[in-house]
Amino acid sequence: MSNVYSILMVDSNAAFATMFKEGLERGGEYRVTVTASEDEAWQALGATAFDLVVVDLGLPDSDGAAFARALREQHPDLRLVLIPLTGDELAPELADLDVQGVLPKPFFLPELPARIADALGRTDVAEAEGAPGAETAKPEVAPAPPVVSGEDRLAVLRERFDEVIQKMIRLTQEVSAEAVILTCGGKLLAHTGRLAAEEADRLAQVADESWRTSARVAKILGREQLRFEQSVEGGEHLFYSLAVADDIILSVALRADVPLGMIRHRAKETAEVLRTMTSGC
Q: Which CATH architecture has domain 5-129?
């Protein structure tokens, strides 16, 4: 690896900052320093040279917009990404501020590295990963109206990401899960619970391999794989997965002393809510 980029995150929301940090550091290309206030941020900036600063404009201890302007004045060459108070655009009074990106809350986890690469001006990565602003040729596909494509479903999940996370958090609490993860094609879309992002990512790969094995068996038997469902017990833990749609998989990892019937019931309820969210897109 030729470079490790240093990023400062200024955000008082510990859960959001942790997801941001783990989501970026997993690949080894970024080192993230998290600060929870403007004062902490100025101290960090005085001690370390950062390649990028990400600022939540909703900081409780200061005027986020004024802080962003001060950052730009004192560090004119610093790359700056702002998190809007609401929506995915900056307020009109900040329209003249030189920024390299906008990161709305909640962010869609698979898009995070590409967004940051784009803000850093890493055009090679942006083109390879399809970062916002990178032009990628896509073949035209003839529409098939009652079928909802995987891309359309992912688009809806992205738009309603906050609702998706809330449903997953509720499932986590209902069955006391170690983790609840949502994956597509082996890639981690979202996770809740106590597991770190790296562990959740490994579970995503396990869920994907189980899905693909199930699909191969269904094909050999001449059957269509309409609803994937699998539970795996090992030692003190249980891993339960089921398909939301296409290859979008909802998985629950928890202690084996939780009754499987309750896990199946609650997980199916959550999967059905997610399926309903995307079925009309």
A: 3-Layer(aba) Sandwich (3.40)
Q: Per the structure block, which two tokens stand in for 236? A: 């003190």
**pLDDT (tens digit, 9 = 90+) per residue, 147-169?**
445 577 777 777 888 888 888 99
Instruction: Pick the closest to residue 230 from 258, 211, 203, 215 (CA basis).
Output: 211
CATH homologous superfamily of 150-279 equals Dynein light chain 2a, cytoplasmic (3.30.450.30)
Residues 6+ apart with CB under 8 A from 208: 183, 185, 186, 247, 249
3-state secondary structure the chain: CCCCEEEEEECCCHHHHHHHHHHHHCCCCEEEEEECCHHHHHHHHHHCCCCEEEEECCCCCCCHHHHHHHHHHHCCCCEEEEECCCCCCCCHHHCCCCCCEECCCCCCHHHHHHHHHHHCCCHHHHHHHCCCCCCCCCCCCCCCCCCCCHHHHHHHHHHCHHHHHHHHHHHHHHCCCCEEEEEECCEEEEEEECCCHHHHHHHHHHHHHHHHHHHHHHHHCCCCCCCCEEEEEECCEEEEEEEEECCEEEEEEEECCCCHHHHHHHHHHHHHHHHHHHHCC
The span from the CA of 35 to the CA of 279, in Å, is 40
Within a 10 A sphere around the Cβ of 256, how many other Cβ atoms? 14
Tokens of 273: 């809510």
Domain boundaries, the chain: 5-129, 150-279
Q: What is the pTM of this model?
A: 0.51
pLDDT at 184 over 90: no
Phi, psi dihedrals of residue 48, rounded to the nearest 5°: -135, 145
Which residue in this structure is represented by tokens 């032009």? 135
| Backbone Cα Rg of the chain | 21
